[in-house]
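Sat 14:20. Reprocessing the chain from the morning session after the first attempt stalled halfway. Input below, unchanged.
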Amino acid sequence: MDLKTLFEQATEDSKALSDRPSNDTLLQLYSLYKQATEGDVNVDPPANPFDFVSKAKFEAWSGLKGKTKETAMQEYINLVGKLKG
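Finished this time. Tokens:
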């Protein structure tokens, strides 16, 4: 299977995990997904300083700046595989 197909399968698998991952792992999944599908962060940081969830998501995604979509896809696939056990 090609990388895109494996990534799409991992995306489906991530929705059916038996245990809910930690918040840190969820942020990692989110940022890798965004980097894989959209590339480098392309939105402004959240304007509300008390919107901690949006701020954490933005910072996690922006921390992957420069990582290729293909690398992010592979890391996402690997992480979901690890979470599935």
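The mean pLDDT is 97.
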